[in-house]
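tl;dr need the bound structure. longer version: we got a ligand (alpha-D-galactopyranose) that a collaborator sent over and nobodys looked at where it sits. i said id run it. heres the input, straight from their email, havent touched it
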Amino acid sequence: MKKSASLLFCLLFISVGVFAQKFPDIAKTPQMGWNTWNKFAGNINEKLIRETADRMVQSGLADAGYVYLNIDDCWQGKRDSLGFITADKNKFPSGMKALADYVHSRGLKFGIYSDAGRKTCACFPGSSGHEFQDAITYAHWGVDYLKYDWCYTSDLNPRGSYLLMRDALYMAGRPILFSICEWGGSEPWLWAGKVGHSWRTTGDICASFDKDIDHGNWKTLSVMSILDKQDTLRKYAGPGHWNDPDMLEVGNGMSVNEDRAHFTMWCMLAAPLILGNDLTNISDATLKIITNKDVIAIDQDTLGVQGLKYKAGDGVEYWFKPLAGGDWAFAILNRNSGPAECRVDWRDFIFTDNLSGCSTAFDKIVYRYDNLWYKQVSGNTKSVLKVTVPAHDVAVYRLTPVSD
Ligand code: GLA
């Protein structure tokens, strides 16, 4: 008996050691969905999730690619006498399995949240010491996505903790997208490619264009602060493993121009597009931004190369993102508080991107371009492009070669 038990243990150990990995074939393009945290924080319940699932389908968001419906922190109740996690019975009286079933019945995928430490950031039970139990519970509920946070982890090693949960998820058998939320402290881009499908690169975002918000002993970061931290990380991202500059704040209080700039730049970064606004009360302007299929196509491009900032000056930045089939996305970001008159002489933008090997070759290739927010504005790179970009806004184009 003793012998067969140790044989079983050895086999399990060997199979975990040899075969444990992150689930392949997930997030080949950056994941898209919705999450409770940015708008609702702890004020969540099953009615909100069901209504949001309905809205994701009715409003065309699901068709535009937003398929993950993710519950963030504050869903947890207590652990039961055997240590299994339960959902808060007041907020989720039908339980998580029934909720996941409902979300799946709408053609969507279901996501949940936990933390590598003893407690989550909002002080609910974390997964430390319960990783395999939690992974089995999530698989049983029908979870498709786990965001795994980093609060209350003072004595833990980040890579080790995330590897442990990765392996637990894999052993539980249900393919689950593993979203690492370690805020960038241990430079997860250096180790997380084989561990998760995305990793947060910074602390938390707030609905502010360029002013961080001070909360005393911590800060939430503006859209521009976060953007400024992404450019050097582009070489670590690619299909199945993305830099995550945090969830979207579109529709949460910035101006329409700022929302448009935020959304566009996240697409230029090949960032996960996780909405964080109230879908039961959404303006037409917000819906128009988050369902622009041409801009989403930049994010979801199959080449999977994060964009680069090629040139900047006087508050105006020029970004390029190579796309599959020889196309380029080109964005002009105006960070100033007044409009910027921009004159783009394409000869100033001839370069080869060392990461992808793609060249703009504006001296040899003529591209046709379309302005992706104002479709009536098209042209080609034979002549100079003149455009006025409003304050805190962008102009973004897709360039397609028309001749050599
Ligand atoms: C951390 C994460 C946030 C959110 C909260 C929940 O701050 O970075 O995205 O999940 O915890 O408590």
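gonna send this back to them w/ a short note. The pocket of alpha-D-galactopyranose is lined by residues 37, 72-73, 120-122, 149, 181, 204 (CB under 6 Å).
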